[in-house]
Amino acid sequence: MTLHIKNARVLTMGGPGAKRGKAMGDIGVIESADVRIENGTIISVTPTNWRSSAVFRRSTWMGYSADRPEIDANGRVLMPAFVDCHTHACFAGDRLNEWDMKLKGAAYLDILKAGGGIMSTVRAVRAASKGDLATDFAWSQHYFERGGTLHFEVKSGYGLSTADELKMLRAAWEVTRKVPMEPRITPTALLGHAIDPDVPAFAAPTINETLPAVHAEFLGMAVVAFCEKAAWSPAACVGLSGRAKPLDPQTGATATSSHRWAW
């Protein structure tokens, strides 16, 4: 099936490779263009003022019929869907009180010391069932779609134990298998997230017990860690990565987010 969208203000996001810095401000705007789509694939994006071209008339503009419907955008924006590469959409509880603390000047480490932050959500996740997590995540998935996000990653990381990390990943995977082609969901095992203060040498059981259990049930799933003073140290992240790579050399490497640590 062919679809034509005409008179659209198109944001192409075009350019050679990934953009950084000031280049991110160039979103490839075509003020008025016609877009041709065949069987879900964009075939052409043509500036409206090219319609008078004889070459354009012969090669691209086929006119409209019942099997080639037309949408007149009337100058509205037409753009690619959003891709969100970092979400924690599978969780339980809320931390609205922390927003009030932040407004009063509290830093994240202050909130963490007061029993909030990641550990607040960890307690809620541990108390929730897999069904509860899956139900709430399914609702979140609908909001992503309504907001224009058609591919997003969802992390675990709020279980901080083998059983609870597996529970989160099972809930996320259950929803992922049920949704149609879009939005696409990519579950990720955030095994190196926070440090459970009640578990001595917390990184060791995560690396030696939780990681192999996740690998056994979710072969090929990416494993990531959060490198931060209040979270995992560089040494712990390297240890997780070193154990993950032999399990699955293709996807087991650990990506880390480092803010204050110097490697």
TrEMBL record:
Q: Which UniProt keywords are present, listed alphabetically?
A: Histidine metabolism, Hydrolase, Iron, Metal-binding, Zinc
| Coiled-coil zones | none
Q: Which GO terms describe its biological process?
A: L-histidine catabolic process to glutamate and formamide
MF (Gene Ontology): imidazolonepropionase activity; metal ion binding
User: So, what pathway does this thing act in?
Assistant: Amino-acid degradation
Entry EC number(s)? 3.5.2.7
Do the record's keywords include Metal-binding? yes
Record-linked InterPro entries: HutI, Metal-dep_hydrolase_composite, Metal_Hydrolase
UniProt-listed PANTHER family:
IMIDAZOLONEPROPIONASE, IMIDAZOLONEPROPIONASE-RELATED
Record-given protein name: imidazolonepropionase
Origin species, per record, is Limnofasciculus baicalensis BBK-W-15
